[in-house]
Amino acid sequence: MSITTTAQVSESTTLRLVNGKSITFSSNEASEAESIPAIDVSRIYSPDLADRQALAEEIGSASRHIGFFTITNHGVDMQLATNTLDQAKQFFASDRDKKMEVYTGLMPKEFCGYHPMEEYNPHGQKLQNLHEAYNWNYDASKDAEAPDPNTPSINLWPSDMPVFQERLCAYQTALIGLARRLTRVFALALHLPEDAFDKFVKAPEAGMRILHYPAQTASRTDQNGIGAHTDVEHFTIITADSDGLEVLSKSRQWIKVKPTPGSFVVNIADCFMRQTNDVFVSTVHRVINETGHKRYACPFFWGFNRSTVLTPINSCVDEDNPQRYPVMTAGEYYEWRTTRQKTLWRFRKQESGE
Ligand SMILES: O=C(O)CCC(=O)C(=O)O
Ligand SMILES: [Fe+2]
Prior knowledge:
- The protein is of the alpha+beta class.
- It has helices spanning 49-65, 78-93, 96-100, 162-189, 270-275, 330-351, and strands at residues 2-5, 11-16, 22-25, 30-31, 38-40, 68-72, 113-115, 132-136, 205-213, 226-229, 235-240, 245-248, 254-256, 264-268, 285-287, 295-303.
- The protein has one domain (4-351): Jelly Rolls, CATH 2.60.120.330.
């Protein structure tokens, strides 16, 4: 972590993110003084376009200002989420050898598979990030709305845990349905036709991850559960069983996000930020588990098909906001981030003397 000191103000911290941007904040403490917007999204199911447009205005405003919001009345059966978190508890409780059979290092250009405990340290803190994770990708053959048995899925499933795969995929299928509807609302929020993005999400990126964060005893300066970062794709839908998620506001304060039973947290990610030329904010976030007990979470990472060219949306580029990023496909960006993230984070681990 690089510490810089300003003349009158106390110490501030500057961190460089994997996406190339830097962030600075003056206090490492998080507070509940600000909160993220809570949006009732039941209107995604309304047959009336005016209802969906009104919802799009709310979601668009949250995406432009903080890039994080909670959604209620989303229509997803929360039993599917509970089942997935139960499977996470069982998987992470198994032997390390068992988990290492699906080690993510076997797939250097992908995130899928098992990420061991204390493997990464993105900001060179005294201690490695205190989490372990398991990631799995979209499987076109299980897509309820557009099943395609001919596209192989890239995954590392544990060999003898069929219920694990079944429960995790059932939850993923439900979230894919919700994400397709939200994608239409985002199109409206950008004042595009509602179906403008449909073609990009026929065969989407819809990877997921389960995470286990042990209770942290070290200070938040020395260790994070997961260090400050932005997500890679278009938007993320997070389920978590406890406090711990923190979001960096525009005023550079860390805000605590409270999980509300039955709701999800949604955040904008980097591909959407690039495609909207920074009109949508891909907000920096991290997790620090100071609850005193284990924390489990399950983010769902939704992105447009890897062949989608991330040309900035016309209405997001003008004289005051000229084009900020070179154009590349979502797949090129994904691969750049994955390899960079894995090598950079491991490099910093070696640097810290492990
Ligand atoms: O555990 C959480 O609540 C969020 C995890 C996260 O931000 C991530 O995996 O990208
Ligand atoms: Fe994240």
